[in-house]
Amino acid sequence: MTSDDLLARHRAVLPSWMPLYYADPIEVVSGEGRRVTDAQGRTYLDFFGGVLTNMIGYDIAEIREAVQRQLATGIVHTSTLYLIRQQVELAEKIARLSGIPDARVFFTNSGTEANEAALLMATNYRRSHQVLAVRNSYHGRSYATMGITGNRGWSASQLNPLQVAWLHSGERLRGLLSRLPEADRIDAAVEDLREVLATQTSGDVACLLAEPIQGVGGFVHGPDGLFAAWKKVLDEHGILLVSDEVQTGWGRTGEHFWGYQAHGVTPDLLTFAKGIGNGFALAGVVGRAEVMEAVPAISFSTFGGNPISTAAGNAVLDYLLDHDLQANAARTGAILVDGLRAAVGGLDCVAEVRGKGLMLGVEFVRPGTAEPDAALAAGVFEACRAGGLLVGKGGLYGNVLRMGPPLTLTEDEAREGLAILVEAIRSCAAEAVTP
C-alpha cells in the first residue's frame, strides 16, 4: 500500500475540512524516542509530538508495560459506574499537583470535552450563561467551546449557547495592547476587563476561560502576572477563573508545572489533556470542590478515565516526575530559543522568536512590516520536513511555525533540530528576496 493510495482513500471517505499536513502528506508507521518513520522509510525528528500530545515520546517502555498490565487483566472498560483503581490513583496525583485546595477531578476524553465540562460547572455554579473569553484563543471543536474560540479559522459555527464578551489578547505584535510599553499592558488589560464587564454584560458573569499561552493562536501570551490582575477584578464580582492548560500543562513551559503559575494566582478550575495520555485519550477538569459539585443532575463520561487511559496516565505522570522533565524542558528549550534568536532573530522576515520551555513559535512577516507572511511560513514548514524535522504551524494568520517537542528531548536532539530549523529559515528567506 502506497501513501498515494491511502491519500486517495482518505479523500474519498473523510471530510475535506479535516486538514492534512504537507503538500505530500505522510503516514507515520513507527516511532521510537523522539523520532518517527513514515511509510516510505524516511525517519524524522519530531518537534510537534502529535500536536504536543506525545509528551514523553514514542515506544516508552514504562508506559507500554503499564498498558499491557492492564490489558492482561481482560478489563479495557467497565464505566465509571464502578470503582476504577487507576482512575482514583491518577485523580489523587492530579489533585495534589494542581495547586488548588480541596480539589476534585473529572476525567474526559479530550481537551474539548474538558473545557465543555468546565463551562458546565461554572455556568451552573454562577447560574449564568455569560462567559468572558480572550481574542485569538482556541478551546475546542464542540458547540460551546467554538463559541468561546476567538480565532475565526477555527470557529466553524457562530451559533452559540453562551453569551460571550471578548477581552484583548496578549498579542505583542498587533492589536491595541501592542501599542503600549510592556510595563503598561497589564493595567490596560485590567481597564479593558472593567469596561467589558460594565458595557457588555449584566454583571453576573460565570467565568473567564483563558489559556496562559495561546496554542493554536501561535504561542502568544500576555505579560506574566496578567491572570492575577484579571482575577482581582473577577473576585470583586464573584466571577470564576478557568485556566485552559491543555497545551501548557505538565511542565512544558519549563519554568512552571502549570502555565497559570507564571501569574502568581490559583484558578478556580483547570482543564488538562494532550500530554497526560501520551497518545491515549485522556483529559479532564480539576478544581475547587464547591465549583466541581455544582452539577445538579447525573453526569458522567462513558470512556473518560477508563482503565487503559488512566493506566497510561499514571505511567506518564510518574515518568514525568521521576525524570524531572520540567527541568529538561527548560534546559533544551533554552538551546532552541537562544539558538534561533541568535541565528535568525535578526532577519527582517522574522518578527519574533517566542515561547517558554518546549513551547516555541517563530512568526514570519513581510520584510520591514508587521504584515503576516503565511507563504514564507509554509515554505519553512515544508523545508523542515525535507530536512528531516516535523514541526507545526498556526497563528491567527497561519504565519507561525509552532514547536512542541516531547519533554524527553535531549540536548543533542535540540541542537540537531535547531540546525535544520536555521537552515530552513535562512534558505526560504533568501529565496523570498531573490528577484
TrEMBL record:
UniProt enzyme class: transferase
Alphabetical keyword list: Aminotransferase, Pyridoxal phosphate, Transferase
GO MF annotation terms: transaminase activity
Matching Gene3D superfamilies: Aspartate Aminotransferase, domain 1 (3.90.1150.10), Type I PLP-dependent aspartate aminotransferase-like (Major domain) (3.40.640.10)
Annotated EC: 2.6.1.44
The keyword Signal is annotated on this UniProt entry: no
Pfam families given in the database record: Aminotran_3
Entries under InterPro entries matching the protein: Aminotrans_3 (IPR005814), PyrdxlP-dep_Trfase (IPR015424), PyrdxlP-dep_Trfase_major (IPR015421), PyrdxlP-dep_Trfase_small (IPR015422)
Cofactor field: pyridoxal 5'-phosphate
UniProt record similarity statement: Belongs to the class-III pyridoxal-phosphate-dependent aminotransferase family.
Subunit-level organization: Homotetramer.
UniProt-recorded name of the protein: alanine--glyoxylate transaminase
Annotated source species: Micromonospora gifhornensis
